[in-house]
Amino acid sequence: MSTLQAIRGMNDILPDEAELWEQFEELVRDWLRVYGYRPMRMPLVEPTPLFARAIGEVTDIVEKEMYSFTDSLNGEQLTLRPEGTASCVRAVLQHSLLYDSPRRLWYMGPMFRHERPQKGRYRQFHQVGVEALGYAGPDVDAEQIVMGARLWDDLGLTGIELEINSLGQPDERARHRADLIAYLEQHRDRLDADGQRRLHTNPLRILDTKNPAMRELVEGAPTLMAYLGEASLKHFEGVQTLLKDAGLPYRINPRLVRGLDYYNLTVFEWVTDQLGAQGTVCAGGRYDGLIAQLGGKPAPACGFAMGVERLLALWADQGNRHERPVPDVYVVHQGELAGRHAFRVAEHLRDVGFVVHLHCGGGGFKAQMKKADAAGATIAVIIGDDEARANEATIKALREDSGQRRIAVERLAETASEWILGNECE
Ligand code: ATP
Ligand code: MG
Predict the structure, then answer these.
(1) What is the residue with the minimal CA distance to atom 21 of ligand 1?
(2) How many whole angstroms from 299 Cα to the centroid of ligand 1?
(3) pLDDT of residue 259
(4) Residue 301: beta bridge partners?
(5) Cα distance between residue 332 and residue 91, in whole Å
(6) Rg of the chain on CA atoms, in Å
(7) Distance of alpha carbon 260 from alpha carbon 95, whole angstroms
(8) Which residues contact 23 (CB under 8 A, 6 or more apart)?
(9) Within 13 Å of residue 272, how many CA atoms lie on the same side as its CB?
(10) Cα of 115 from ligand 2 centre, angstroms
C-alpha cells in the first residue's frame, strides 16, 4: 500500500523547524505587547459570503484562490479563511468590541489559498495579523509601519525595505478609475489576458501586474496620486512626517495598490530582494470602509499581515540557527525498584523547575549514559536498586570532569542547582 502524503503546498513543520517557529513567536508576542496589542483567535472556517463581501468579488483571492465547500449536513457555503482581517472584523462586530473604545488586536495562524506552490508561496501558510480598529489618524498608520521596523530589528533582519502609497478615498479612486480605463482602452491590444479581463472590473490591479511586457504601458498610465484631494494628501503627509521623525527610510511606490479591495488612504509593503520572486514579507494599510461594509457602525481601521514562512526563510538565510534544547538532567536507572524511584525523582526535579529527560525503554547503565551524553544533558542522575532502597541518588556532571556524588534525595535539587549553575557560569 502506498503511504499517504500531505496535500501539495501544505507543509509539515518538523521539530527542528517548529522550535525555530516558537522562538519567532515568542519574539512576536513580546513585540506586540510593547505596543499594547491584545490577542484574538478566530475560527479557521467562515461563511463564504464574509470573504466575498470583505475582500471583493474581483480579486485574486475570491476569484480563484479560496478553498470553499458546501457543508454536507446543512448546505451552508463555507470557506477556509484566506486571510484574517475579515474574520477579525466579523468577530469584533459580533461581540461589540468596538462599543466603548478603539481596539488594538492581533492574531497568528494558518491561512489557506489555492495558489501554485513555489518557494515562499504555499496553500497553507501562516500570517501574523495586526489590526487597529476605531483609529482615524495617520499616527496609527505610522505606528504600525514603525512597528515593522522594530520587529526586523528584534529579529536581527536586514535588507527589508519599506514602500508606501496612498490609495485616497473611494470618490478619488472613482475619478482616477474612469481616466485609467479610458487610457487602457486606447492601448487595449497591449493588455494581457488578465488585463483584458480586469479592464472594467478592477483596472487598478492592472497597475500591479507582474508581466514585464506591460511595464511600459503601466508606467504611462495616470497615477492615483494626482487625483488625491486635500484631506487625503494631508493624511499621507501626516504619515510621512512621523516616519521621517522616526528616521525610517521609505520609498513612495505609486504602483503599490494591494490585492484586496478594502484598502483606502495609506498602504504599505515591506519587501526584500533576498527571497527571489516572493519578496513581500509584510503588507497592510488603512481600511476605513470595511467595518460598515460588514454591517457595523462605520469606524476607521488600519492593519497589516506578515508572511511567517517568508520571514522565517529570511531569518534562517541570514544565519539564525535553531538551537536544539538540551535537558538539565538525564535520569538513568536499572532495576525494578530503581525504575519506580527514578520516576518519582524525575517528577521531583521537574517540580523545582529542571528540564528532565527520564530514560525510558530499559537497557544497561553504559548504554543509558551514552544516551544521556548524546542528549546534551548537563548532569546525569543515576539510580540503582541500592540508591532506591536508601532514598538516594548519584549525581554525575556530564560536561566537566567533576566526578560524581551519592546524596539523599532531599538534597538532590539543591546540589543539582549548584552543579548546573556552576556549569553555566563558566
Ligand atoms: P502576493 O502578491 O505575494 O500574492 P498578497 O498581496 O496576496 O501577496 P496579502 O494578502 O497582503 O498577500 O498577505 C500578506 C502577506 O502574507 C504577504 O505579504 C506574504 O508575506 C504572505 N502571503 C500571502 N500569500 C502567501 C502564500 N500563498 N504563501 C506564503 N505567504 C503568503
Ligand atoms: Mg496573493
Answers:
(1) 307
(2) 26
(3) 67
(4) 133
(5) 51
(6) 28
(7) 25
(8) 322
(9) 22
(10) 8
| CB of 235 closer than 8 Å to CB of 138 | yes
Q: What is the DSSP letter of 336?
A: H
Q: Indicate which ligand has the atom closest to the C-alpha of 305.
A: 1
Asked if residue 280 has its Cβ within 6 Å of ligand 1, the reply is yes
Rounded to the nearest integer, the mean pLDDT of the chain is 93
Ordered alpha helix ranges (H), 287-364: 290-293, 308-317, 336-351
Give the residue, out of 88, 262, 280, 304, with the most ligand 1 atoms within 8 A of its beta carbon, to mutate for a pocket test.
Answer: 280
Burial of 188: CB neighbours in 10 Å, binned 0-12, 13-18, 19+: exposed
CB-ligand 1 contact for 56 (6 Å cutoff): no
Q: Residue 29 contacts by C-beta under 8 Å, 6 or more apart in sequence?
A: none
**Which whole-number Å values give the CA distances from 230 to 168, 169, 306, 322, in the listed order?**
10, 11, 31, 50
* Cβ neighbours of 68 (radius 10 Å): 14
251-252 vs 161-166, strand pairing mode: parallel
Dihedral of CA atoms 14, 16, 21, 23 in degrees, nearest 10, equals 160
Pairing outcome for strands 67-70 and 103-112: unpaired
pLDDT along the chain (426 residues), means of 10: 92 94 96 98 97 88 94 96 97 95 97 96 98 97 98 96 96 92 92 88 84 88 93 98 98 84 92 93 96 95 98 92 89 96 97 96 94 95 96 92 88 91 61
**Cβ contact 48:78 at 8 Å:** yes
Closest-CA residue to 283 (of 305, 263, 312): 305
Sheet holding 124-133, edge to edge: 38-39, 103-112, 124-133, 301-307, 280-286, 264-271, 161-166, 251-252
pLDDT of res. 426: 46
Q: Please name the helix (run of DSSP H) or strand (run of DSSP E) that holds residue 165, with its range, or none.
A: strand 161-166
